[in-house]
Amino acid sequence: MQVTRFPARASGLADRMSGFIAHLRMNGLRVGPKETADALAALSAVEATDFGQARQALCVLLAGDAEDWRRFDELFDAYWFNSGKQRTGIAQNTHVRVQSSKPMIWQTDNETARDGSADTDQATAPDPGDGEAEGMDGKLIATRTANLSRRDLRELMDEQSLKQAQTAAERLARAIRDRRSRRRKHALRGPALDMRRIQRASLARGGEPLDLYRRARPPRPMRIVALCDVSGSMTVYSRVFLAFLKGLVGTGAEADAYLFHTRLMRVTDALQDHDTLRAAGRLSLMAEGFGGGTDISGSLESFLNGYGARALNGRTIVLILSDGYCSADPQALGSVLARFRRKARRIVWLNPLKGWQSYQPVAAAIRAAEPYLDAHLPANTLEALAALEPQFRKL
Amino acid sequence: MTLSDVQSGLAAQGYVADDWLAMALHLAQALGRPLLLEGPAGVGKTEVAKAMAGWRDTRLIRLQCYEGLDASHAIYEWNYQRQLLAIRASEAQGGLPEAQLFSDEYLLKRPLLEAISEEKPPVLLIDEIDRADEEFEAYLLEILSDFQITIPELGTVKARTRPIVILTANGTRDLSDALRRRCLYSFLDYPSKETEMAILRARMPEIEGVLARQIIGVVQALRKEELEKTPGVAEMLDWAAALSGLGVNDLARSRDEVQATLVCLLKTAADYDAAPPEVMDRLIGKVA
Asked: How far is CA B248 from the centre of its chain?
């Protein structure tokens, strides 16, 4: 251990490192006590006095995915150099105020954080000496700004609507089940006897057909990939749609759910949480920037380039839940959907605006998209979603 | 071993690693942890493992993942045919004890078991882990954290030496948190201009400065265009080889060859249509 490098506070580094790990955890990285020990071990394997090396080493060790990888520098600086973003504006409603006041428990170990930067990086971050007061903001703010931009989706979901959404989603999933298979396959339980197997197995029993094998038509579920727009213009409908997504993922059908605004994120795992409220909590952590602008074609494209390779196949129905208001080039949407068409079986656009009377698809993006859609259906309430079942049967 | 050793060692193998990757590889060896590499296709994730094996002068054991990969293909399997033959052959002598039947002799070692039973620590490359099913990740957990494999009939096989494990992923599927937590992580992006130039120099020293600069410039500009399949480093090297094979010295003066050799860079029909001569003229004009 680097006892010689921190002569005055040999135990201090461990403390400060656990502070850093806690700071990362509050910012959404999946790290725990084991990582604290690993981080100290990692620092002993490199030149810990070289700030660049220390940062690289910690990033390699602690980042878990590409998202963490990109954010790490900022988080690192926020903690060790007190250079978090300045917070602007004040909390609007009571809920946010409560949330933002939570991290105040950090005030106590804030002092060690400041000392940490002074000790480890004397060359790069000269301690101003009177930084006691400003020192507070550094690592607190990195979290707070992030928290402020998150919407709590818990208020968007209640038991009643969830149940309704679930039934609607279940019915839809049943309606689009693939009924093509006529062939029977070997099964544990089934209506027909598998004579061939029975004959073969009877050899071992001296010709007596003791083991009975059966055959059944295999279930061939359609896979559903739902991409839901959560941008500003869709805020009113997100309650319905998120409940619907939750229902869809919870039906046991093969379903995959994604949210997008200007970026795309996969929410299937969060939605699969059995505890509804916790699922909503996890969702709200993910829906960072929820209610901002939209980049439909960009999000769909990043889906195709990433998850799409695995998520799409000839038995996949793609549901796009969006109003089609898009800040990017509408023509791009057409070409992205053309690529979708080549990979997926059906593309269905559920449009909340289409539920309105005298709706015309005038938005440029929708017009560019329409030629590639198998269906463009209205969906603005749970009832409307439930009424889609006969339409889906036709697909 | 220090950080610069890693870089110079890989450089000797013709692999140019940037600081972040070198740090990741250094830590992976120093801490004995597996390294997860993510990034777009064609940035040299697989090549890292080959270069590592070359540098450490050790075996490279590669496990290519695919949908449906299971333990019997990745870890071990019993050699049933041999077991049956042995039973038949020994029947005359009064049979074979069962313990002998399930011994090393009848064990078929697949890549993962092979990797932990080598004398000299090999480089184990688990390629495109996101293509394998989620269940397979669970098999990996025991191996990656404790470097041991449990075979019910034989007991637990502990690693004699710790292999250097490199996993690669393209992000077609989310990997489980459990797997990510056991690994060091590094994200490889397309190389910067300088790094890519160094790669080209290392791999093809015969290409002259002007041409090299033009090639890198055009490839870097192409990556900014909207393409379905962005050309990676491997494609860039292919293209450079094609151009130098045709005796091209200056892209601007050999337009026909450039257009003909674009097949090395662009791999779909749509991308090929997206780079007509006019676009290439513009890109070449910019770097010339």
From this structure: 31
Which of B7, B20, B179, B184 to mutate to probe the A interface, most A CBs <10 Å?
B184
Helix (H) or strand (E) holding A228: strand A223-229
Range(s) for CATH 3.40.50.410 in chain A? 162-173+220-394
Which residue in A21, A55, A60, A71 has the most chain B C-beta atoms within 10 A of its own C-beta, making it the best mutation to test that interface? Answer: A60
CA distance B188 to B209: 26
Looking at the complex, does the CB of residue B66 fall below 8 Å from at least one CB of chain A?
no
User: How confident is the model over A377-391, as pLDDT tens digits?
Assistant: 887 777 777 777 777
Kind of pairing between the strands at A192-193 and A214-216: antiparallel
Structural domain spans, chain B: 3-75+110-187, 193-282
pLDDT, tens digit, for every residue of B246-283? 888 888 888 888 888 888 888 888 888 888 888 888 88
For A162-173+220-394, CATH number out of 3.40.50.2300, 3.40.50.410, 3.30.70.330, 2.60.40.420 equals 3.40.50.410
pLDDT tens-place string over residues B116-140: 888 999 999 999 998 888 888 888 8
Contact between A269 and A307 (Cβ < 8 Å): no
Please classify residue A296 by burial: count the beta carbons closer than 10 Å to its beta carbon, then call 0-12 exposed, 13-18 middle and 19+ buried: buried
Class of domain B3-75+110-187: alpha beta
Whether residues A310 and B173 touch (CB distance < 8 A) is answered with yes
Contacts of A75 (CB under 8 A, 6+ apart): A23, A24, A27, A29, A142
Nearest residue on chain B to A61, alpha-carbon basis:
B184
From the CA of A165, how many Å to the nearest CA of chain B? 26
